[in-house]
Write a structure and sequence with these properties.
Chain lengths: 195, 1009
């Protein structure tokens, strides 16, 4: 009997709970919004596209197999967004009176991995996900555990100093850091590659 | 030291460095990690080791690296301190603004903090408005309005701190279930109270919708209270922070227009006020009861159209059992016109209270049977079309802004950043082209809102094209093409707006440039096509056949390979026909255009612009046949046109141009039918046509052309009535026309309206003289006359004035002839002089020749009344030259009669001797011929008693008697009036003395053979 906790990605592809979905949405909504905005996609459209992206993820995330390449998930996600955007614009084109000339260029740029916003996406993705996870796991820990972790990791304070500031033992501070780090690492598995 | 990790730990030995390191990074598996945890709890050595090595592994781990970096990057999810508020998290985000949940540490409370989002560029005026509105709403204190605590500014960026509502939006609440009737009414009372408070404070929300109403949740006592406690948010800030409607590049409003009031949907900002909020309250009540907003189209455009024009589905249809009074209250709020809604929120509250108390409400059930609404429902396609046009007008200013902005980019940045500017430019160009397509040259749809706006939009388009043409085109062929097309467009619009000189200048420039471009690229049919279009447009301005011929030559050359150009080919041929003098050639051209248009229609049988073209050509053919006396053919061509226009009107009854074309064809058929003697039918047709035009005029009260058309219709009707001697009715009808005309002339005070006034006065005067109200008639004629003379004095060569005055002076003479032949003769002389000059100046205008022919007939008649037969003969001679073939015999006989009366018997009888041998002469003409010989007989008997003269006179007498005895003449004379004329006619004085005359009388009295 193993109690190995599953990462968010694993849970989503095996037995997802509503809370897991909420977590994915919470993590990725701001990132995708920023990314779409950087291409000039209008706010209202971005919301609609995101809706579709998440619907696609809901269906397809179970089929996503990490191929071991660095950045496999973020690339897969990026292509999903581009495809949804394409479909969305195609549908809009049918009903709208206008034919926006910019759109093909936007899509072209999105598909080009060396375009600036795509490089930005790769960079932003990991740091954003890490940051988002930080907030997601925080409620699992007591205030003092969290503070011990914060002081050591974020502010580079030694465990002994953190223990002194917080009035706890050194080993408690070390354990606190280890536990939060472990939670973050597990949660991030598949979303971010550490090696 | 080669034991397994487990063994070491079990053995009480220390974990390895690697294990410790992985532990510190949280990378050990759970069971191992807990063992290390247990170990370090009792092992100071390992703790120290971990403490010491911490900084080493910090730099090698990617996750830590990411975590450390993330704290330094600005992100709304980071803990930040703004103006003393600690940002906790983001609650929502809109176009410009962002709302955070924040902590106000000093007061230990959580607030909603609204700001303009970072990176959003807010202009000075927007910031001003944000502040002004923020301060205004801060003054509102009401239990059902989210309280503003603090309004401030940080680094020039305003923020608002307000009450944080724990709960969900009404929109979410309604997703699960509609409200119970009384629950909805109570909720609405509260909302209306809040809105009343705001209105009393001078604030209008303008964006009330279920998303902006939060319902406070009371986790503990929700069952107990059973009341929905609403909190209205986004008060007055809606426009800044979360725009419900954003304007896209093309000027189309997107968003959720379901709660927008009709005045907002039409862009009628002047009407937006407290009643706008009343409307929104009605929409919210509707949704609370029916489970959906009152209007919800598949697209925002359709929704907006519905908001403007459709009646909402009665909520009781969607929610069976809905009390009638609650429905009435709801629908009263949703009235299209603000003045039909509750005038104040207090009135709404009053009625809701009455409903809740079971007392009768004050509002009356609304009749939902307005014609315009029904009409929209029956014709959804038409309604959609109007929707598009209304949007164009609703977003007039924003449309202007958008393409002006694009223009600045396109034209200003062009020098430094060619490629980017090009995109913007293309975009702006497309926007204008689309706008023109919607409102420019196409038919005016039946939307009174369009009055004036079309001109305004066209003027903006002129500005756009002019700015665009300030810069030189780039060298590539398509940039040049587009540049020249813009020139043509500009020319066409300038012409539409009445600036003929500028129009010609631009069209000429475009033509020269397009010609050299097409020489350079002979294989490019599109360039040749555009070149031809410029020629057609120029021809419309110049009315010069050469321009249309140019276009036709070019288009015929490419029409096989480039069939798309056949539409313009047909148009060019049609236009050429209209300016061609030769009747045969005109007919040939019209038939060719007809054939082309029919061919095109086979491919697309429902294409309305092709259908319109077909009707146009048929109508033109009808006109041609009518002016050349081919009356039967004329009628059938006009009837073809009528059928086409009727079909168009049935399919698109909103399009005023189609209705007017239908009225025009009816008018022309009436005239033809009248010529054929079916006067009653003609009057019926003209009445129908006038009714159609009155409808158009009522819909476009500010467009004078529509009223002019009504006046023309009334005048034609009056003219027909006059010709059938129904003078009293004619007076009535023309009086109506005169009143409309005077009103128009006073309003516009320009020549064309004075002309209409004078024309109406003329017809009225004619009708009055028919009624024998001579004093009134003369006074009316003189009023008309002074208008004509003043116009001619100002512009003596104006062909329009000359035609109009020339024809109307003839009408004056006709009416005055018996009473005052001398004044009549003055008018006749003025009339023929004006028209002679016109015919000389415009030899190709067959209609001018026909006017002159009539004018000479009238002049001759007046001089006959005056007894001046020599002058009469002069005019009959000219009339005979101008007469159409089928009338030349009549005129010839009248001329002969005048000649004879003037004493020139030789010439008169000579002319008649050939005539009397002809077959098929009418009884009237035979009688007149008899008179010619009668006059000659009388003259010769009076002049000389010699034998020779007697002999000649005997001849004249015999001929006269013979003519009077022909069966056609006998039939004519059996009519009582003719018989009376026969007995008193001075011309026949000596004939009546002849013995054979008695025999004639006996024959007339005898029973008919």
């Amino acid at each position: 009997m193993t109690d190995t906790p599953l990462s968010l990605l694993h849970r989503l592809s095996s037995q997802p709970q509503d809370s897991d979905w909420q977590r994915l949405v919470d993590i990725y909504t701001p990132l995708i919004r920023r990314w779409l905005a950087s291409y000039g996609v209008a706010e209202g459209e971005a919301d609609d596209v995101m809706q579709e992206v998440f619907q696609t993820l809901l269906v397809e995330v179970g089929q996503f197999k990490h191929n071991g390449h660095t950045g496999a998930f973020r690339r897969w996600l990026r292509l999903t967004i581009v495809n949804r955007l394409k479909g969305f614009w195609r549908a809009r084109k049918m009903e709208s009176l206008t034919n926006c000339v910019d759109r093909d260029q936007i899509l072209e740029a999105m598909e080009d991995p060396s375009s600036n916003p795509n490089l930005f996406w790769d960079k932003e993705h990991d740091s954003h996900v890490a940051n988002a996870l930080l907030q997601l796991v925080e409620p699992q820990f007591t205030v003092s555990t969290w503070q011990a972790f914060r002081l050591q990791v974020m502010e580079g304070v030694k465990a002994s100093e953190a223990a002194q500031q917080l009035g706890i033992s050194v080993n408690a501070a070390l354990i606190a850091k280890s536990r939060v780090m472990k939670a973050l690492r597990e949660e991030a598995l598949g979303l971010i590659e550490f090696e | 030291m080669t034991n397994s990790i487990d063994d070491e730990i079990l053995a009480g030995t220390h974990p390895t460095h690697e294990q410790l390191e992985r532990f510190a990074l949280g990378a050990l598996e759970s069971n191992q990690a807990s063992k290390v945890e247990t170990h370090i709890a009792g092992c100071e050595t390992c703790c120290k080791l971990l403490d010491a090595t911490q900084s080493d592994n910090m730099h090698s781990d990617k996750l830590i690296d990411l975590l450390r970096k993330s704290t330094s990057s600005p992100s709304p999810s980071n803990l930040r301190l703004i103006a003393g508020y600690q940002i906790l998290d983001e609650l929502g985000r809109g176009g410009m603004g962002v709302v955070y949940r924040a902590l106000q540490p000093a007061l230990r409370r959580q607030v909603a903090l609204k700001m303009i989002a970072q990176g959003v560029h807010a202009g000075q005026s927007e910031l001003m408005r944000f502040r002004r509105e923020a301060e205004a709403t801060a003054a509102l204190h009401h239990p059902y309005i989210a309280q503003v605590y603090d309004v401030g500014e940080l680094d020039g960026q305003p923020y608002i701190a307000m009450e944080l509502i724990q709960g969900r939006a009404l929109s979410e609440h309604l997703l699960s279930q509609p409200l119970r009737f009384e629950e909805a009414a109570r909720l609405l009372v509260r909302l209306a109270q809040a809105i009343q408070h705001a209105h009393a404070s001078g604030i209008v929300h303008r964006d009330l919708k279920p998303q902006n109403i939060l319902l406070e949740s009371f986790p503990d006592d929700i069952r107990e209270s059973d009341e929905l406690r609403p909190k209205i948010v986004d008060f007055g800030l809606a426009k800044r922070i979360e725009p419900s409607a954003t304007v896209t590049s093309t000027g189309i409003i997107v968003g959720t227009p379901s709660y927008m009031s009709p005045e907002q949907a039409t862009g009628n900002n002047a009407l937006v006020g407290p009643s706008t909020d009343i409307y929104a309250l009605g929409a919210i009540l509707y949704e609370a009861l029916a489970g959906r907003p009152p209007f919800k189209g598949v697209s925002p455009i359709e929704t907006l159209t519905q908001v403007r024009t459709a009646e909402p589905v009665r909520p009781s249809v969607l929610r069976p059992g809905l009390p009638r009074d609650l429905e009435t209250i709801c629908l009263k709020c949703l009235q299209k016109s603000p003045k039909d809604r509750y005038l104040a929120a207090t009135d709404l509250i009053e009625d809701l209270d009455r409903f809740l108390d079971g007392r009768p409400i004050l509002a009356r059930p609304v009749g939902l049977t307005r014609a315009t609404w029904k009409w929209t429902k029956r014709h959804p396609a038409v309604a959609a079309l109007i929707g598009v046009i209304i949007l164009a007008s609703a977003s007039l200013t924003t449309l202007g802004l958008v393409y002006n902005a694009s223009l600045r980019n396109a034209l200003g940045v062009a020098k430094t950043e060619q490629a980017r500017a090009d995109e913007n430019f293309q975009f702006a160009f497309q926007a204008v082209e689309q706008m023109l397509e919607r409102v420019g040259f196409a038919q005016l749809a039946d939307t009174p809102e369009m009055e004036g706006i079309r001109e305004k939009l066209l003027a903006e388009a002129v500005e756009f094209y002019s700015k665009m043409l300030d810069d030189q085109p780039r060298a590539d062929v398509d940039s040049r093409r587009q540049y020249y097309n813009a020139m043509t467009r500009l020319g066409k619009i300038q012409w539409t707006l009445g600036d003929k000189d500028s129009a010609l200048r631009n069209l000429d420039q475009a033509i020269v440039a397009q010609q050299s471009l097409s020489a350079q690229y002979p294989e490019r049919y599109d360039i040749q096509h555009e070149f031809a279009v410029s020629h057609i447009n120029k021809g419309m301005v110049t009315q010069d056949a050469a321009d249309f011929r140019h276009a036709i030559d070019v288009l015929q050359g490419i029409s096989e390979a480039y069939p798309i150009c056949k539409r313009e080919l047909a148009q060019a041929i049609n236009n050429l026909a209209n300016v061609t003098a030769s009747i045969a050639e005109r007919e040939r051209l019209h038939l060719r255009a007809l054939e082309l248009r029919q061919e095109l229609l086979q491919a697309s049988p429902d294409d309305s612009s092709l259908l319109y073209g077909l009707g146009e050509t048929q109508h033109n053919l009808g006109f041609l046949y009518n002016t050349t006396g081919r009356t039967a053919e004329s009628e059938s061509a006009y009837r073809e046109a009528l059928r086409v226009f009727e079909r168009l009107v049935n399919q698109h009854d909103s399009v005023t141009d189609y209705r007017n074309a239908l009225a025009e064809s009816m008018t022309h058929i009436a005239s033809v039918v009248h010529t054929l003697g079916r006067t009653d039918e003609a009057i019926t047709l003209i009445e129908r046509a006038t009714d159609i035009r009155k409808l158009s005029a009522a819909r476009f009260p500010k467009l004078p052309a529509m009223r002019e058309a009504v006046i023309r219709g009334l005048l034609t009707q009056a003219a027909f009535l006059i010709q059938t001697s129904r003078f009293a009715r004619a007076s009535e009808v023309s009086h109506e026309a005169v009143e409309m005309a005077i009103e128009l002339a006073q309003k516009f005070d320009d020549a064309s309206h004075q002309l209409v006034e004078a024309g109406s006065l003329t017809i009225l005067a004619t009708a009055l003289s028919g009624e024998l109200k001579m004093a009134e008639a003369r006074e009316t004629f003189e009023r008309a006359n002074s208008i004509y003379e003043a116009l001619l004095k100002a512009e003596p060569t104006n062909p329009g004035y000359r035609t109009e005055a020339g024809v109307q002076f003839m009408n004056f003479s006709n009416a005055l002839r018996q009473e005052d032949p001398k004044r009549a003769a003055e008018f006749n002389n003025r009339s023929t002089a004006l028209l002679e000059q016109l015919v000389e100046d415009f030899p190709q205008r067959i209609d001018f020749q026909s006017y002159l022919f009539n004018a000479h007939g009238a002049r001759a008649t007046t001089y006959e009344v005056l007894g001046d037969y020599r002058e009469a003969v002069v005019s009959w001679n000219r009339a005979l030259q101008l007469a159409p073939p089928e009338q030349s015999r009549d005129i010839g006989i009248l001329r002969a009669l005048a000649l004879s009366r003037s004493g020139d018997h030789a010439l008169a009888t000579e002319a008649c001797k050939t005539l009397i041998k002809e077959q098929g002469i009418s009884g009237l003409n035979l009688y007149n011929l008899a008179c010619v010989f009668g006059v000659a007989d009388k003259a010769s008997k009076q002049a000389d008693e010699s034998n020779a003269a007697e002999k000649v006179a005997e001849d004249y007498c015999t001929l006269a008697i013979e003519l009077l005895n022909r069966s056609e003449t006998i039939a004519f004379l059996r009519v009582t009036e003719s018989r009376q004329q026969l007995m008193v006619d001075a011309d026949l004085e000596t004939i009546r003395a002849h013995a054979a005359f008695a025999a004639l009388l006996e024959r007339l009295d005898a029973p008919q053979d």
